[in-house]
Amino acid sequence: MATEWIGVLAAAGAKTFAMRRCQGALHTPAGEQPSTVVVASHFTHDFMGHYLAEPLVARGYAFFGWNDRFVGSDPFFRPDEALVDVGAGVRVMRQRFENVVLLGNSGGGSLMSAFQSQASGSALVAEAVNEIYGDVHPDLESLEPGDAYIALNAHESRPKVLTEWFDPSVVDERDPFAADPELDLWGGVVGQPPYDPAFLERYRAAQVARNGRITSWVREQQAAVKANGGTERLFNVFRGWADPRYLDLTIDPSDREVGCYLSADVRTANYSAYGLASSCSLKTWLSMWSLDYDVLNVAKHLPNVTVPALVIQGTADQGVYPSNARSLYEHLGAEDKSLVWIDGGGHYLDGDHLTQAVDTIAAWLEDHGFNP
Fold it and tell me: What angle do CA 339, 340, 346 make, to 5 degrees?
């Protein structure tokens, strides 16, 4: 396998705190020039060494793990600039390969769906970004779409997944430990799983309410920051590992085991320093985590994805569930679409599960004329 490192200075647009350097790794079969490249990107995670690269290259395809300017900079993410950065990578690949296939893994599923939607003529991202930031990156209107779309163990949106993982027993966002015992999965009042449906209904409503309270506070803080001559501020969000599905396997049943991505001990994960949205700026909360905007939600963008599409989902994933995969499939606007289950596959595929996923991708690509 040959690897080429590619760097692009991202197009200047609005003022951000992030570096404008986008970087990627193009992996190809040594001495060969494939006709098809698979491009994978994520909001803020490094995909240059993605686990799909080597096995897809072994089947004759090129794989491009492409990072936008916000890798490692969650608190300063902007949707329009991220999509422009994905577009820069796609443009480079268009110059070198006949076919460009977009792959959205995990959070990248919603990012790449929004990219394809925007590149196909949608104005949804521009409208939301302009409302939040007061401007839009000028290159957002000149994105080139991909020829196909693949979602692998993909979330529906960051606000949705954050809210479903939220601990709604938080009574004070400044206090990492205080909890309402009526909603605390570990407080002794709720009891053990399986949970009562009426409790789950209250719990889910409280999760949504927590997201809304933070959004209201953010708007208040924006006014306060402006009144004091500032432009932004950072804040923390605590306890984001409390989805009842981590503990109750009868909810959205699958082959998963008890636990979450961070730990089999969910309570320890919930009270750890690591989690989605753990550090935010005000505007990034609105653009990446608030249910009020949910800028990159697949339900908004997948109807505009009309190219051939494939959804792949591991049945033992502890954070993306069968209902999520079915939602992606149902929202796709493509007439030519498929949903494939990887039996026993977790979120981070390896071994036989990885082989099965790569075999599925390669066979699907060839069936659709995207040859190596």
Answer: 120
Q: Which domains are assigned to the chain?
A: 2-157+295-367 (3.40.50.1820), 160-289 (no CATH)
Angle 124-133/108-119 helices, nearest 10 degrees?
Answer: 110
- Relative to beta strand 21-28, strand 2-9 is antiparallel
Q: Is 43 helix (H, G, I), strand (E, B) or coil?
A: coil
Predicted confidence (pLDDT) at residue 16 exceeds the cutoff of 60? no
Q: Among residues of the chain, what percentage have pLDDT more than 90?
A: 94
pTM to 2 decimal places: 0.96
pLDDT digits (tens, 9 = 90+) for 52-66: 999 999 999 999 999
Tokens (6 digits) for 214? 């933070």
CA distance 207 to 170: 10
Interatomic CA distance for residues 352 and 248, integer angstroms? 27
| Residue 19 confidence (pLDDT) | 59
Rounded Cα distance between 372 and 362, Å, is: 9
* Region label for 344, one of left (φ > 0), alpha (ψ between -120 and 50) or beta (otherwise): left
Q: Which of 82, 6, 81, 77 is nearest to 48 (CA)?
A: 6
C-alpha 174/C-alpha 313 separation (Å) is: 37
Asked whether residue 15 carries a pLDDT value surpassing 90, the answer given is: no
- Is the distance from CB of 129 to CB of 295 less than 8 angstroms? yes
